[in-house]
Write a structure and sequence with these properties.
94 residues; globular; 4 strands; four-stranded antiparallel beta sheet; alpha+beta; single chain; Archaeosine Trna-guanine Transglycosylase, Chain: A, domain 4
């Protein structure tokens, strides 16, 4: 699971703990780790939602100004399934 460059630091700081992804099929699994240098994110929950379920609050929680801003990024492929993914960042072990 990758994040735009501008979102990586807020994810590492814990300011962003959820993301919206529009995929053909689910690409992450609850409990799995996904690299985000220098540490990784762990998926806590996955919710299948509809586009109409994306609120301005969800958009802000995922690091975007609003729904339109989020969808400009999220709708970049041919996927049609919408997932709201909760996660947390784990820094590298010292």
């Amino acid at each position: 699971m990758q994040f735009m460059k501008r979102l990586r630091e807020p994810v590492r700081n814990g300011d962003i703990t959820r993301t919206v992804r529009i995929w053909k099929s689910l690409r992450v699994k609850v409990g799995n780790r996904y690299q985000l240098e220098p540490g990784h994110v762990v998926v806590d929950a996955v919710h299948s939602i509809e586009l109409s379920d994306i609120t301005p609050e969800i958009a802000r929680e995922t690091g975007f100004k609003g729904v339109v801003d989020l969808l400009k990024t999220a709708r970049h492929g041919t996927g049609d399934q919408v997932f709201l993914i909760d996660f947390h960042y784990v820094p590298p072990e010292a």
